[in-house]
Protein 1
Amino acid sequence: MDGVDFRRLWDELAPIGRAEAGGYLRFSWSDADLACRDWFRAQAAARDLRLETDRNGNLFAWWDPDAEAGEPNPAFGAADTSPRTGEAAPAARPDDDRRAVLTGSHFDSVPHGGAYDGPLGIVSAFLAVDRLRAEGAEPKRPIVIGAFTEEEGGRFGVPCLGSRLMAGAIDPDRARALTDTGGTTLAQAMREAGADPDALGPDPERLANLGAFVELHIEQGRNLGDAPVGVASAIWPHGRWRLTFTGAADHAGTTRLPDRRDPMLTFAFAVLAARKEARLADGLATIGRVAVEPNATNAIAAKVTAWLDSRAADAATLEAILSGFESKVRDRAERDGTGFAIAPESETPIVEFDTGLRDRIATLLGEGAASDRVPGGARERAPVLPTGAGHDAGVLAAHVPTAMLFVRNPTGVSHAPGESASDEDCAAGVDALAAVLRDLAC
Ligand code: GLV
Ligand code: MN
Ligand code: MN
Ligand code: MN
């Protein structure tokens, strides 16, 4: 595949959800998300792939050789028959060699996020299927393209929500009650979009019928050097915590400094403390979101809510950052006369991807299609690297042998408009994904 072929399909999706102020606003169940879903349905229909929407709003497009031969995979019904309420119907588990190979990613973005984080994995999946078909490949097991809902947690706060629900890693009642910044619950947003929130819940049969998941994704930190494509080894443990600082609203012009209980002071200390604890422990901590009440220029704040994101190479380091942060901010709140509370919103333990699958792919890509694009000639194995970014692949890895392919990002910027990848590297990613699907499914 060349960059021109990649760009042709990429340009169809690229305008959806593009924000005038830069980057993308593709929040789950928004009009932009629904337009992405329509695009997915159209792509599936154009390729005669069977479309399914699961009980959690995740989309799947099936290239199923058994169905084409008139013998549908017994684990799955016809299009869109997934149960809307109650438990999933019991289904026979196909033999291992008939279990599907899933590939894909997500459409949703962080606020003003980049173009590639998520959509690259979906566009590449359709192009990889096209490539296999053009070569006359005959899969022995289904190849399925997936689009997971609310991977970023950009609207409802919990990342990988669609895959967590599928895996039973979040209580559906909690999910339904999550709110966006406007106070709309997930349940309301789904209803407004014509989806059924009562159906949300674990989907063990669907998971049990997946033989492998391979998510292709933009690399997010300029870590691939001279290689266009790499393979993930692990995802760092990470999480999100809600921080609440409370004080007393009062007049900015008449309240003496010693009489104030100003939660902004404690919050400001917390931002610096997060940075310092992360630096001391050699991990990462970020406070990138804040809401102030009443949010007036001439009134002392009554309440500050902020969100801490922290990540580290191992669980002990992450724990050290959190405990140091919490105790220092508590001390400071006491001195400021303010209240401070910290509550986890999502926690994700370290994910080590399936080593057999990872090594198989790294070797395959080292000798295969992607390597002839590496300047200086073929390398023995594709680079294998960990990431601090979370992915649906990390959630599914607990249930299904899972791997990730990374496509080079020359700026190293992600979750921001400057995220980028060259068309040639994206085409190399499609070649690599097609090689992996051929290896696993044909
Ligand atoms: C999601 O992309 C995350 O890593 O926060
Ligand atoms: Mn992301
Ligand atoms: Mn992503
Ligand atoms: Mn992610």
Protein 2
Amino acid sequence: MAFEYAPAPESRSVVDIAPSYGLFIDGEFRPAEDGKVFKTVSPSSEEVLSEVAQAGQSDVDAAVRAARKAFEKWSALPGSERAKYLFRIARIIQERSRELAVLESLDNGKPIRESRDADLPLVAAHFFYYAGWADKLGHAGFGADPKPLGVAGQVIPWNFPLLMLAWKIAPALACGNTVVLKPAETTPLSALFFADICRQAGLPKGVVNILTGDGSTGAALVAHPDVNKVAFTGSTEVGKAIARTVAGTGKKLTLELGGKAANIVFEDAPIDQAVEGIVNGIFFNQGHVCCAGSRLLVQESVQDELLEALKRRMSTLRVGDPLDKNTDIGAINSAEQLARIKSLADSGEAEGAQRWAPACELPSTGYWFAPTLFTGVSQAHRIAREEIFGPVLSVLTFRTPAEAVEKANNTPYGLSAGIWTEKGSRILWMADKLRAGVVWANTFNKFDPTSPFGGYKESGFGREGGRHGLEAYLNV
Ligand code: NAD
Ligand code: MG
């Protein structure tokens, strides 16, 4: 029998959300020129949190103009001066991390345990890390005096709103670029709070501009003729559309798209440790993770033992209030995403796989999906091929290492993979053969600003993080 938990909610009072927000252009908040707005809701309660501006073409023009104007002075500053601003931003993020963590959990639905212990520390670390590069660009391996590109247009998704902002903005500013960033329409608030942090840090006007809006705002931004660099994280479908828009314009482009990672467990792996890694791989952030370990490849000889342990562990996962400190799995980010997850899970059953989920009570309002696993999955099933982007694991089996490699690589994606085995030589052999940008060994979903991240094939191109991440923002 598991112990009952008393509720342990984090206080909402640490964050003060205004009833409405404007666009952040040239250091000021202002309404959209045509006055359009949209609402952002908390996916765990469907409560409206705030109303934000929907940027149109003339707002995009104004933001790019502000960024262009700011570029001249910002790019001419010595790197050591730019570093001071980035260090200041990093420290303010640390100081305000509790407020930002609660805000992120409210707007996105992710558990406070994750926003507090994973997202926010990584956001601050990313700014600290790239602050350190700003005065050392001549030693990064891109020539003695590498130059910035100009104005960067950046479009990010809703799964890690503030972390994806950090991945985009920190290296861009360190290298001397100015930015116009568009957060996702379901999670605009932390980017607007970041705009406030830029003001608090005394960042010169126009260096960072934040445009809230939907896909049409993103499309106008990436198509703007005075943008020099486009960085996008999101779906492969939109990534392809952006690649078509940017083709032939001379704009530099990086795309970080979806994934369908294999988490591969060999018979000699420590089973309990592997189970933790599988759970972290697919249920972290409700499975809204591009590098999620959504395909479990288990060696046939340990399948029964592993699945039994995995089901036992899944039965202890707590689904519910994102602000409760004991919650493991929060709310699905939007009604649309929930519908997508449901329809893919239904296709799994229709195509003949066996569905299993622990008994678990879901709240009556908000968007929820119980942690789910499918056995009897074949490589042709949609749940083995398509990115579900939810808490759904597809289990496949293999007999030999060669078969594991073949099945792991049998996907249009190539973002990440995991290997669980006691044998070091097998880890190296496998890692060499897996077509994935990141390969974790006996762990999963580990992130660090010093380590490059990015994909092969339909997972996109370009690297974010580490020294490699500078290249995307330098004229090299
Ligand atoms: P999306 O790609 O539509 O949205 C991502 C961002 O792109 C948002 O800010 C959106 O406003 C913007 N956008 C949409 N259309 C655009 C366009 N034509 N030009 C420029 N920007 C545009 O993703 P989604 O619809 O929220 O999710 C759909 C699926 O994408 C998910 O189910 C998941 O499989 C995948 N996804 C992947 C990631 C990732 O991190 N790789 C993130 C989010 C979603
Ligand atoms: Mg929201």
